[in-house]
Amino acid sequence: MRALVCEAPGRLVLTSVADPDAPAPGWASVDLRHIGICGTDYHIYEGKHPFLAYPRVMGHELSGVVSAVGEGVTLAVGTPVIVNPYVSCGHCVGCRRGKPNCCTEIAVLGVHRDGGMCERVNLPEGNLYPTGGLTLADAAAVEFLAIGAHAVRRAAAGAGERALVVGVGPIGLGTALFARLAGLEVTLCDASAERLESARQMGFERTIVAGPESAEALMHQTGGDGFDVVFDATGVAASIEAGFTLVAHGGTYVLVSVVKDTISFADPEFHKREMTLMGSRNATRVDFDCVMAAMRDGLIPLGAIVTHRTTLEAAVQDLPRWAKTKAGLIKAVIEV
Q1: What is the pTM of this model?
Q2: 157 shares a domain with 135
């Protein structure tokens, strides 16, 4: 089968690889149809991802059709499915606590093991969710939106509380959408005026362009109190560190993005706020279900979010180009 392989940072090739074996008991084969390109994929291409060995078939935002099943699988061949790309062990401390998204032995497609920028993958049945009426094109967007839905659920903020989302790429935008659906008063901050304008077209009226004066402007917006919950989705260490001062006393700081760097902060500032600091990693079935329900109810403006489409062949040139120049780009999808 064809596969798009990142052989090393900056080197992407379309090549032929062996088809997956027949699925094992409890597993199924999925013929892939749509593959979202994530910030993670750009970071892998650029050599910036902290959990990766090359060469790697990237891709974890996936939809497709069940093409073969192993013994004991109840999904029927021909079922359209969304892929949960977080393959967990089922027995570690994280899994025992109902948090397979942070399994100690997690194997994320396209990161710890080869992913879905190819024509077929094998996965456990528990990682395959029927689309429930969503088109396969729309279904490929569920995973990245589930990251934001999970972060908002983790924050457990109440309706009417003030939320700040820093970084308005696809993950930050998804976080903002589900924060708004949770009833939060959402402000967005990003270095790109173009991204903020796109967000305004989706109904986000409170936006601040990141810069030397942005912290003061953001605090002014809250009357000097700070935000009840701050979500950082920038993937930039300096931004993460700067965000500590924007959290209100008694507030919560949620780190959605992951960076290689060591993050430091002033302990007096942290303690005097009695701040809650939390990481948000991946997503779980409940978050996927939340996203699918919102999409079926027409609450997610997918037409405005998916701005670019390509093919496996064209992605050899398109993905590196988009990694460098994101003008007009929110989310790109590969069609197989």
Answers
A1: 0.95
A2: no
